[in-house]
Design goal:
The chain is mainly alpha-helical and 463 residues long. A two-stranded antiparallel sheet has the order 1-2. Strand 7 and strand 8 form a beta hairpin. The radius of gyration is 24 Å and the shape is globular.
């Protein structure tokens, strides 16, 4: 493989790996804030125990997300210098705001929350974790605004002499129609991830330690299942709106997601398709009119096909292949839907199992143990679909991915860093899993007694 292919693999691996931590960080911040609010309002010690227990898991995940996010950004200068040169004027402002405002709020108030259990008034201490939660959402919005500009460039002009895009309307970048639709979809997916994480752990503790952990983790299981289910409903609604926008703004991505070669009215949606080695369809299970309904809300609506869109883009941008890799786009879209749908169904099943004081049986551990991985997989496949479906553009309609790679970086150099990052991330995965397993299997943190005496009691993770 040449330097371009290796650089794409490296960025894909590091991005997908980093995004394993992002939705969990966002959702756990709000869930922990919710548990602490319940304790503040009711004084019930089980909510305090859940706050401290899941707060420790949140801190571990937050730390790993920061580390992997910093490493990810190095690649812009290392492997994608021509891209950085082209978008630097656009991306500089949102990335600076994310670092100086959102991340500053996160880190500062997270520190106050960790060490302020016995030093701050309860109301102020509660406000700290809510500021952290809101800051994570703000950080996500700003990063999504930058990514949305790659999907739908707005608020800029191209300086042809300098060979770069220049910012003209920062408000237009922040209110890009793509980010306004993508943000609620991403946040809903994040809450599915956090809900599944809380539910899976709670079920495991309920089955393994029903006497010790019964009351707190029964509450945690119900909260996790509810958050997962509600998040799934919002994913459906927001995804529907985002899908219609993609059909209008990036029709090639939608056509590739269905392998729709020719423009059709009443276009069907393929649930499952197999191709031969030459790319010819040999078997397909389809739902009539469904793609038109998804794209236009009209069963007779017209959906543009790959061949027609290819001809249009060649006429506009010149010779070249402007279609993405269809199998990757096609299957990532379906794996995203399938994994998310299974997670939502599992939430319903657990709510049924927990009704009227019932305790899940040992078989539920298998479902609960696998459950957190389903929304994580759905989120990952969603980003693969989003980014791969935009190819061959790195900035849609403005810069090709092949024109964005660093010209001075050799294949050998990228290969060395690819292997190095992969080994580093593998090591970080071992550390993350070990820390999470240790805290998940530990006894519940002390409740009221430990938080009201005169000694300094930061969260255990701070030691």
């Amino acid at each position: 493989m040449d330097a371009l292919d290796l650089a794409r693999w490296q960025f894909g691996i590091t991005t997908v790996y980093h995004f394993l931590f992002v939705p969990l960080t966002i959702s756990l911040a709000f869930i922990v804030a919710g548990f602490q609010t319940a304790w503040f309002r009711t004084g019930n010690e089980k909510y305090l125990k859940l706050t401290r227990f899941f707060g420790e898991l949140f801190l571990i995940n937050f730390a790993m997300g920061v580390v992997t996010g910093i490493v990810q950004e190095f690649q812009f200068g290392m492997n994608w210098s021509d891209y950085s040169r082209f978008v630097g004027d656009i991306f500089g402002a949102p990335l600076a705001i994310e670092g100086l405002l959102a991340f500053f709020l996160e880190s500062t108030f997270l520190g106050l929350w960790i060490f302020g259990w016995d030093k701050l008034p309860r109301r102020v201490h509660l406000a700290c974790i809510w500021i952290v939660a809101l800051a994570t959402a703000l950080s996500a919005y700003i990063i999504l605004a930058a990514n949305a500009w790659m999907q739908q460039p707005v608020g800029y002009v191209v300086n042809t002499a300098a060979g770069r895009a220049e910012l003209k309307d920062f408000l237009a970048v922040l209110t890009n129609p793509t980010v306004l639709l993508a943000f609620p979809h991403v946040i809903a997916g994040a809450f599915m991830t956090g809900g599944a994480f809380v539910l899976g752990i709670a079920v495991w503790r309920l089955v393994r330690r029903p006497g010790e952990d019964g009351a707190p983790f029964r509450t945690a299981a119900k909260v996790g299942a509810t958050v997962l289910l509600v998040g799934g409903l919002f994913v459906i609604v927001s995804g529907d709106q985002l899908g219609q926008h993609i059909a209008t703004d990036q029709p090639m991505k939608l056509a590739a997601a269905e392998d729709l070669q020719t423009t059709q009215k009443s276009a069907p949606f393929s649930v499952f398709t197999l191709w031969d080695l030459n790319g010819k369809e040999v078997f397909s299970i389809q739902i009539p009119d469904m793609l038109s309904i998804l794209a236009t809300h009209d069963p007779n609506g017209q959906v543009q096909g790959i061949n027609d869109l290819q001809a249009q883009e060649q006429a506009q941008y010149g010779p070249g292949d402007y279609s993405p890799i269809v199998p990757v786009t096609f299957w990532s879209f379906r794996f995203m839907i399938g994994a998310g749908g299974l997670a939502a169904l599992a939430a319903l099943w657990f709510l049924w199992k927990l009704r009227k004081g019932r305790v899940p049986n040992k078989g539920a551990i298998l479902v609960g143990g696998a459950l957190p991985f389903l929304p994580l997989a759905a989120n990952s496949f969603a980003w693969i679909f989003t980014e791969m479906g935009r190819q061959p553009w790195i900035v849609y309609g403005q810069q090709l991915t092949a024109s964005a790679v660093s010209p001075s970086v050799s294949s050998l150099e990228v290969a060395i860093t690819l292997v190095g990052f992969t080994l580093l991330y593998g090591g970080l995965a071992v550390v993350e899993i070990g820390l999470l397993a240790k805290r998940i299997g530990a006894a519940l943190p002390a409740g009221e007694a430990a938080s009201t005496d005169s000694a300094d009691h930061p969260m255990p993770f701070a030691y």
